[in-house]
Amino acid sequence: MTADKTNEYDLIVLGGGPVGENVADRAVQGGLTAIIVESELVGGECSYWACMPSKALLRSAQALRAAQHVAGAKEAVTGALDVRAVFARRDSFTSNWSDDGQVKWLESAHIDLARGHGRLTGEREVTVTDADGGTRVLHARHAVAISTGSDAVVPPIPGLREASPWTSREATSAEELPDSLAVIGGGVVAVEMATAYAALGSTVTLIARSDLLGGMEPFAGERVAAGLRELGVDVRLNTGTSAVRRDDAGVTITLDDDSEITASEVLVATGRSPRSGDIGLETAGLESGTWIEVDDTLRVPGSDWLYAVGDVNGRVLLTHQGKYQARAAGDVIAARAKDEPVDADEWGRHAATADHAAVPQVTFSIPEVGSVGLTEKAARDAGHEVKVVDYDLGWVAGASLYEDGFEGQARLVVDTARDVVLGATFVGPEVAELVQAATIAVVGEVPIKRLWHAVPSYPTVSEVWLRLLEGCGRASA
């Protein structure tokens, strides 16, 4: 249990988002004392400005679309989305931007909280400056874990910063629906927010320097682009933005071909940068404002006390992977503090091995994209001998029952030398629930001949697994 009225703890965690909470919780469960330092809301980006509010904004449109694509149900749907009700539901998932519930959870988990900005000021030392300028110096007996997350990047486009653009924070917390929205970017945030605002009724233009969802299988971006256009989004691919200006009439975006787009608001979704400036990294011999390199136990090389967990280490910028790292980090910090054996081998309890080649991800667009592991290109680039198996999801009996005119695609990437699945991608209505089975296959390196005995229930969309496995015997490398 955490000691009362002390400035000395076994573990100090900078950052009170889901990652920091999990690092502290696992360490406390392992018998240590811990304190979290947080300058904003306990619960972090995910709870208030990212995962939860963004998916709440998207879900109402997904539910409406699902009803509209099933005969008998679509005849009963006669109205449009209620924007006020969607925003109110979004607000409920952020607890109206109050962290009271999260603070109570910290108390129940015996984790202390220091409100304020934390900086490393020495080895195992953190100085916290509160909102009134007061300071408190904390000392760690064993470890400091940096879990400060990341910030949206605003690229150096002339006039963009002066135009007060939205980032993901403004997009997920907006109180009014803009008449029109221009989205700069082609990744997950850009796609999801374009989907949400188009479904809510804004006129949306999406501007991307390349194809959508780069790094995924190409067909994923192609199908999502088609889905956005079906929603009425003006999708401009392979074009850049050369200038932005705001005046009383709104925002004007000039593209590289000198054409112009006008909108009420502009959203920048072009990537993330580490939230590691002004936290005293130089004290530990690190460069301020950079991604913090770590080993698979999330410890900073050359240090026996400093850890960096979640977005700030730049490994995988996803909440669920950050929490996965946090479980490993909290456990290993406790083990090292008590001189217990450390299981840091590949797939060991104290190693974040899955970050390298078994990362699951869902893009909540229309259609959805669910993926895990390596794409065909990534697998070939890594030197694997691969077999690619594609299947039309619309041919699966369960899919045709789920939605009239179901359209989608599934792909397996198979390592022919070891006969295991390296990666899987699914695109289609609400395919998110297919990803976990694929994740187990990839992480567990389950041989194809064994997967044959994992019989999918009929009639479900998961029957696609049977069809993909049938294709494994005759797909071309």
Automatic annotation (TrEMBL):
Start and end residues of each FAD/NAD(P)-binding domain: 9-323
Flavoprotein listed as a keyword: yes
UniProt entry keywords in alphabetical sequence: FAD, Flavoprotein, NAD
Keyword Methyltransferase attributed: no
Domain Pyridine nucleotide-disulphide oxidoreductase dimerisation: 359-465
Cofactor(s) required, per the database record: FAD
Family designation: Belongs to the class-I pyridine nucleotide-disulfide oxidoreductase family.
PANTHER family the record matches: DIHYDROLIPOYL DEHYDROGENASE, MITOCHONDRIAL, DISULFIDE OXIDOREDUCTASE
Listed name of the protein: NAD(P)/FAD-dependent oxidoreductase
Species in which this protein is naturally found: Microbacterium galbinum
